[in-house]
Specification:
CATH architecture of the largest domain: 3-Layer(aba) Sandwich
Strand content: 5-15%
CATH topology of the largest domain: Rossmann fold
CATH class of the largest domain: Alpha Beta
Order of helices and strands: EHEHEHEHEHEEHEHHHHHH
Number of strands: 8
Structural class: alpha/beta
Strand order of the largest sheet: 3-2-1-4-5-6-7-8
Shape: elongated
Length: about 280
């Protein structure tokens, strides 16, 4: 990818995407980012060798950034997406693909704030992108052609796995992979709490839980790994692990996880509706 790429808003997630992209065949000189504060702009420029502009210093920063860009990544909060799209509409190249990483904002909502026929891609990345092990759900609008879709994929390819999904599945993607890292962290918290309740000191309990969850994640990330097979390999018949799993099954842990995912997906739909009313 050698064309000009604009990142409008570049927080921790945006920077993780940026860093992964720059690890590939992308010239930092082709990348421009806009942020609110001059200190953040200087930090990004120094760390990654890109051009970074602070909105606090240049009122037209976003419009300047998208001029001539073939890929425009929207990295602001959901409520700011539509106003930002209206702000940059006149400066966008007709062939530019606009890529949103904002949860719950639909392609239609973005398209309404852009010129007719503008290519729009909606994505749902997750935080493991920050360590190069993310997963990104990606949906394309009706105006996106094959070349534009490929450009959008290339933005994320260096940070994790990119999966093409129907847009109607985005709330579920968000509930599983978007929110999913928090579920794993919650499990680590619960494991540490259990260790403390069983008499282990706090520091040891934290280390036991953290390293166990992190190590299990690495095993699951190996090529060809299967969660069910890995679980069964640890679960000896009539052993200690089997007794623990039996309690989890008795309490119907899968149903609890499903209920949580359903609640997350519903909240995504609610936010989408709220944005339409704003």
């Amino acid at each position: 990818m050698t064309s000009r790429i604009a990142f409008l808003g570049c927080g921790s997630m945006g920077e993780a995407i940026l860093a992964g992209m720059l690890a590939g065949p992308v010239d930092p000189a082709t990348v421009v980012a806009t942020v609110r504060r001059i200190e953040r702009a200087e930090e990004l420029a120094q760390r990654h060798g890109i051009t970074a502009i602070a909105n606090s210093e240049e009122e037209q920063a976003n419009s300047l950034a998208v001029a001539g860009a073939e890929v425009v990544v929207l990295g602001v909060k959901p409520a700011q997406i539509a106003p930002l799209c209206r702000e940059i509409s006149a400066a966008l190249e007709p062939e530019a693909v606009v890529v949103s990483v904002a949860g719950a904002v639909t392609i239609e909502q973005i398209e309404r704030a852009l010129p007719a026929g503008q290519a729009v891609v909606r994505t749902m990345p997750n935080t493991p992108l920050m360590v190069g092990r993310g997963v990104v759900g990606l949906s394309t609008g009706s105006s996106v052609n094959a070349e534009q879709s490929a450009r959008a994929h290339q933005v994320f390819a260096g940070s994790g796995v990119v999966l093409d999904v129907p847009e109607e599945q985005m709330p579920v993607i968000g509930a599983i992979s978007g929110s999913g890292p928090a579920y794993a962290f919650y499990l680590a918290e619960a494991m540490a709490r259990a260790a403390r309740e069983l008499g282990v000191d706090e520091e040891t309990a934290k280390t036991l839980a953290t390293e166990t969850v992190a190590g299990a994640g690495l095993m699951l990330g190996q090529q060809g790994a299967d969660a069910t097979a890995l679980r069964k390999a640890v679960t000896s018949p009539n052993g200690t692990t089997e007794r623990a799993i039996a309690v989890f099954d008795e309490r119907d842990l899968p149903a609890i996880v499903l209920a949580g995912a359903q609640a997350a997906a519903k909240r995504s739909d609610d936010i989408t509706a709220e944005l339409d009313q704003a």
